[in-house]
Amino acid sequence: MKILYLETSSKNCSVAVSDNERLLCLCEEVSENYKQSESLHTYVEWALEGAGISLKEIEAVSLGKGPGSYTGLRIGASSAKGFCYGLKVPLIAVNSLESMIEPFLGQNYDLIVPLVDARRMEVYTATYDGQTGKEISETEAKILDETSFEELKDKKVVFLGDGARKAKEILNLPDADFKEDVYPSAQYLIKRTLEKIENKEVEDMAYFEPFYLKDFHGVKKKS
């Protein structure tokens, strides 16, 4: 089964193509300027070309549904829906935090905690078992302070993501590892997507919305 994957929830604009579990091509770039609107469809073209297949051969589209950048999620969701409607294929949606943890599973961590920057001292986070990847605490928007995650102080923990920088400065967890340059990536949506397809967990495109987690607050321009 040939699947197209889109992950646009962060500074990493990421597109992958797989044939079942085999990754055929990955195109991605981390940009401080959030280049999804200008890069996403170019990356889709490059990924398909690199995989050696045409768009009409795609049998499902998988989307990193968030949480993350509101604008990035809107762009990814509208593109994914467009491909699904045009190709008449199902849409699969995976929590973007899950795509951050896969490279760290089985690395002798008790717990893996993604931290996606949500501005000021807030992060999007969840806690996963370091061996199985099983979700231990569900995704939430959390305001960081000195007492955050203190219940994990006796565990071997790694904090991942662009929110890890501010967490490292404030958390009183000297034994924890912090890896700041980790972003959601389309290549790590594959395993979870195939599980969802097998379990027939597909989205109703008429009602699908990205996992924003909190309301969008725009900035008013000064007159």
From TrEMBL:
InterPro entries per record: ATPase_NBD, Gcp-like_dom, T6A_TsaB
GO CC term (a single one): cytosol
Pfam families the UniProt entry points to: TsaD (PF00814)
Single annotated GO MF: transferase activity
Domain Gcp-like: 37-176
Entry keyword set: Transferase
A biological process from GO: tRNA threonylcarbamoyladenosine modification
Protein name per UniProt: tRNA (Adenosine(37)-N6)-threonylcarbamoyltransferase complex dimerization subunit type 1 TsaB
